[in-house]
Recover the amino acids of this structure.
C-alpha cells in the first residue's frame, strides 16, 4: 500500500508539498457559515429586513391629475354623500382639488369627501352599451309563415 502524506501544518512548511508530485490525504472542504457570508455582504437578517416598505407616494395620482388638467377633460366627481359634480380639474394639491364648472361657481373639493371620480366620456360610453340592442332572437315574428 502506498503511504499517504498528510498536509503540512503552518508551523512546518514543506517544499515538496507544493510540488506536482506531492500526494495529500483526503481534503476537507471548509465553508464559512451562511450567517457569516451574509454579514460580510452587508445583508442583515431579522425583523428589520423582512420586507421593504412601499414608497409613500407612487406619483400615479399626480400623473393622472396633470394629464386631465392639461387636456381639460370633463370629469364627474362622485362625493361620499352621493352628490355628483361635473367640471374639469384646474389644479390640485395634497388635500383638495379645484373643479371648474360651466355656468356654476368653481369649487374647492376636499379629497376626503370624494368617493371616486371618472371621465364624463366613460359615462357616455357606458350608457351607449346599455342602450344597444341585444342579439336578435331566434323566434320568428307572428304572422310570418315559413
Amino acid at each position: 500500500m502506498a503511504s499517504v502524506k498528510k498536509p503540512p501544518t503552518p508551523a512546518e512548511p514543506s517544499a515538496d508539498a507544493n510540488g506536482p508530485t506531492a500526494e495529500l490525504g483526503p481534503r476537507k472542504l471548509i465553508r464559512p457559515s451562511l450567517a457569516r457570508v451574509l454579514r460580510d455582504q452587508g445583508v442583515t437578517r431579522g425583523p428589520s429586513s423582512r420586507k421593504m416598505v412601499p414608497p409613500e407616494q407612487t406619483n400615479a395620482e399626480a400623473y393622472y391629475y396633470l394629464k386631465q388638467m392639461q387636456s381639460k377633460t370633463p370629469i364627474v366627481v362622485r362625493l361620499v354623500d352621493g352628490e355628483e359634480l361635473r367640471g374639469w380639474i384646474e389644479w390640485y394639491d395634497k388635500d383638495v382639488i379645484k373643479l371648474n364648472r360651466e355656468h356654476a361657481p368653481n369649487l374647492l373639493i376636499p379629497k376626503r369627501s370624494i368617493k371616486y371620480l371618472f371621465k364624463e366620456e366613460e359615462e357616455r360610453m357606458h350608457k351607449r352599451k346599455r342602450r344597444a340592442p341585444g342579439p336578435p332572437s331566434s323566434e320568428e315574428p307572428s304572422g310570418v309563415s315559413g
Observations:
- The chain has a mean pLDDT of 79.
